[in-house]
Write a structure and sequence with these properties.
Elements: E1 4-7, H1 15-27, H2 34-42, E2 52-58, E3 61-69, E4 82-88, H3 97-111, E5 116-121, H4 123-131, E6 135-141, E7 146-152
Antiparallel strand pairs: 1-2, 2-3, 3-4, 5-7, 6-7
Helix pairs in contact: 1-2
């Protein structure tokens, strides 16, 4: 499989698709409307590169996405920035695309000068991130009892 990982800002036609994925995966059973996710993603289209969403595209089709944004732990100001909303279309899973998206966000964060990034992961997915060098820094965080994980980066010189 050949794919490119690019910024959503360069392919804004995919914003609605990514918003749908995020809403269905994490917000569909809440009061948060799809339009709120679309508004949030529209803040990722700026030229500064933060916040940002990266998308994986193959043959003109979007097949995955991941975001780098301020936080998912408002009450933990030291845990910033955050990798979030990693999603790979089910028919493309098991091919290393999730790992490629994580690595792309790590590289982007490093280029922006961040030395550390964070994420929230359920127990079922924490192992994937641990294999990629992430460490759990806090367990059972929040109402969903997630793990807060950290990745130390080598910043761009």
């Amino acid at each position: 499989m050949t794919c490119q990982i690019v910024h959503l800002r360069d392919h804004p036609q995919h914003l609605t698709t990514v918003a749908g994925w995020i809403h269905r995966q994490w917000w569909s059973e809440t009061d948060t409307p799809l339009e709120a996710i679309e508004r949030w993603l529209s803040t990722h289209l700026g030229e500064r590169g933060f916040p940002t969403t990266l998308v994986a595209v193959s043959g003109g089709e979007i097949i995955g996405s991941v975001s780098l944004h301020e936080t998912e732990a408002e009450d933990r100001p030291e845990y910033r920035p955050y990798l979030g909303a990693l999603f790979v279309r089910p028919d493309y899973r098991g091919r290393g695309l999730g790992q490629a998206l994580v690595r792309a966000v790590e590289a982007h964060a490093s280029q922006l000068g961040y030395a550390t990034i964070y994420l929230n992961a359920a127990d079922a997915t924490a192992g994937l991130y641990e294999k990629l060098g992430w460490q759990i820094v806090e367990r059972a965080y929040g109402r969903k009892q997630l793990n807060i994980m950290r990745r130390l980066l080598r910043t761009a010189e």
